[in-house]
Design a protein that fits this description.
Blueprint (H helix, E strand, L loop, with lengths): L2 E5 L9 E6 L7 E5 L4 H12 L3 E6 L2 H15 L3 E5 L8 H11 L4 E6 L7 H6 L1 H29 L3 E5 L12 H21 L5 E7 L1 E2 L15 E2 L1 H13 L4 E4 L3 H10 L2 H4 L5
Parallel strand pairs: 3-4, 3-6, 4-5, 6-7, 7-8, 8-11, 9-10
Antiparallel strand pairs: 1-2, 2-5
The structure holds NADP nicotinamide-adenine-dinucleotide phosphate.
Length: 275
């Protein structure tokens, strides 16, 4: 396996892309994973690598991303690059995205938004800073970076955008409504994006996981519960949904009827429930 090291053009915002790319494999298209250190994103990265995709792994923790990239190259013999991405540094997003396009020589075919932040509901009720962080990481920053991705793919008239929202956005509950509100905004945004990009042939998938065993839910869930899915199961569902050009994915599937039931409860009853 031959290996080349490519240095990205210097980025004044600090999101330089450090690259270790393997060159002896025909790429089946580049996919940018935003928030690649997330539990679901890691499983997705392995799943996409198995299909031969080249990946840009973007996120804050460069050490972790570099380890993941090496692992992917070793196991699957794919191109795997690492890029610095901070969701809340909106000003850096245009240059970050341009660097990604340059790194893939204009062959970026997909973007997966996998990062997110969930603080305890009580914290977001006491501190507006905490509430704003939840809203900005899960929603505002997504508007910023997805707008870059949408414009690029729309011009190319192909590709896909997958966005991890949540079942929490389907109905506001007292236990999680700040995070739920941010995800509801994200769901509506991706719905509109799908409508806008339809005529250009760009596919937009809204992903709504239920409970998934990751760092985000560590200590909050009984991982033995049949309602709790593994990141690998969710990643498989996501890849299948992209291939089939599905629009909205509930993963695992049973969250669709569960959420339909929850959404059908009249508000007069729902407001008295402890959910
Ligand atoms: N786990 C669940 O039960 C569940 C259910 C429904 C939806 N979701 C959604 O699924 C997605 C993935 O969740 P997960 O459970 O896999 O997450 P996770 O393992 O907790 O990882 C969260 C990711 O978000 C990144 N992140 C947080 N704040 C960021 C910021 N300001 N800038 C850049 N990156 C930031 C983290 O980066 P660092 O590594 O640098 O901290 C990490 O990569 C999220 O959108 C989440 O809301 C999860």
């Amino acid at each position: 396996m031959s290996s080349t090291s490519i240095e990205a053009p210097a980025a004044s915002t600090g999101n330089a892309v450090s690259v270790q790319a393997t060159t002896d494999r025909v790429s089946s298209g580049w996919v940018l994973i935003l928030g690649a250190t997330s539990g679901i994103a890691r499983a997705l990265a392995h799943r996409l690598s198995q299909d031969g995709h080249s990946l840009i792994l973007a996120g804050r923790n460069q050490e972790e991303l570099t380890r993941l990239a090496s692992d992917l190259r070793l196991r699957h013999n794919v191109n795997a690059e690492v890029a610095e991405f901070s969701a809340l540094d909106y000003a850096s997003h245009p240059e970050f995205f341009e660097n990604c396009i340059r790194q893939t020589s204009g062959r970026l075919k997909g973007v997966l938004l996998c990062y997110g932040d969930m603080l305890p509901q009580a914290a977001t009720e006491k501190s507006f800073d905490d509430a704003r962080r939840v809203i900005d990481v899960n929603f505002t920053s997504a508007v910023s970076i997805l707008s870059q991705a949408a414009t690029y793919l729309e011009e190319r008239k192909s590709g896909f955008i997958g966005v991890i929202s949540s079942v929490a956005g389907d109905r506001g509950r007292q236990s999680n409504y700040t995070y739920g509100a941010a995800k509801a905004g994200l769901t509506a945004f991706t719905q509109g994006l799908r409508n806008r990009l339809y005529k250009s042939g760009v596919h937009v998938l809204t992903i709504k996981p239920g409970f998934v065993a990751t760092r985000m839910t560590a200590g909050l869930l009984n991982t033995k519960s049949p309602l709790v899915a593994s990141p690998e199961k969710v990643a498989n569902d996501i890849v299948r949904a992209i291939k089939r050009r599905r629009t909205v994915l509930y993963t695992p599937w049973f969250w669709r009827p569960i959420m339909a039931l929850i959404c059908s409860i009249p508000e007069s009853i729902f407001r008295k429930m402890k959910l």
